[in-house]
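Margin note: ligand = magnesium ion.
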Amino acid sequence: MKKNILTGIRPTGNLHLGHYFGAGQNWLKLQDDEQYDFHLEIADVQALTDHFDDPAMVRKNVYELATDLLSIGLNPKKVHLYIQSQIPEIAELTVFYSNLVTMARLYRNPTVKTEIKQKKELFGNEGESVTYGFVGYPVSQAADITAFDGELIPVGDDQLPLIEQCREIVRKFNSIYGVTLKEPEPLLSPTPRIKGLDGNDKMGKSLGNAIYLVDDEETIHKKVMNAITDPDKIKKDDPANPEICMVYYYHKLIKNPNLETVCEECKKGHRGCVQCKKELITKMNEFLEPIREKKKYYDTHPEEVKEILQEGTNHARGKAKETITKVKKAMQIDY
Ligand code: ATP
Ligand code: MG
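Resulting structure:
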């Protein structure tokens, strides 16, 4: 029996470097590992929890994201790429699990807490803007995972509290209704949290600090030129601290073979920030070019992308139906 991998991504924008290096690297590796059955969810229902008033944006991004995922090299023959809203069993599980978690526990979830705080910073202090659906999204994420008997969950480290909450729900379910569900384990990449251009601890679509894999050369130029560097370096030949410079951070991330020189020259004041940024722009474009090329292909073959999603969704639905049958039997609601 193959073990199930489950992971997901919200269709709220394109893929960025945080996705790629935070979690995507593991996805690319795991798709070739024969011992796993890999499910990758485009979490449109979860995107609607805080974008319920912009369904057109979510719908557009379902296709955008699918083409991005294929463009980084995910192989639809190896990964089941599916759309969350097309699996109604996930919504059913969400309702059942919502009895197994308290409101206090949801508000205590560190990721939910941080996201609510960020929303208040971005959109003003309107407590009402945090909906029942948003606070409850960890419950729906527990449904996402368990619907596919997800055992291994390759994610960025912001997801750890959500997986922990899923594990609690699974334990509670099993203790009340009998052992039915599996407890998932997270899998982190060597770089589980990628910083944003603004120096923020997390690069995120909602934070406006991301380098997208589909950014064109002009956009990359603009973004890198505005990236945060050591604020104490005023003149070109001032020595600086690369460890607090976002430009150095991204040189390291995309594995510039010239990294040691970048670091040494920066520390000694032998390299100006403009030169350093230009070198990063070149390397970043070299890294992104093959992805852009594949994206061009899929953008001009939308029917192929739709077919891939349809196939992935059919496969996922079959699996989720098996789970819901087990769950309803355990809960004695299998009339
Ligand atoms: P949103 O702002 O809409 O929540 P996001 O950029 O956080 O978007 P998600 O769809 O929530 O993206 O995350 C998808 C996956 O990518 C998750 O596994 C998450 O942990 C991972 N991820 C997202 N941003 C980062 C990051 N900056 N560093 C590491 N992993 C990340
Ligand atoms: Mg997120």
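The chain has two domains: 3-194+302-330, 217-296.
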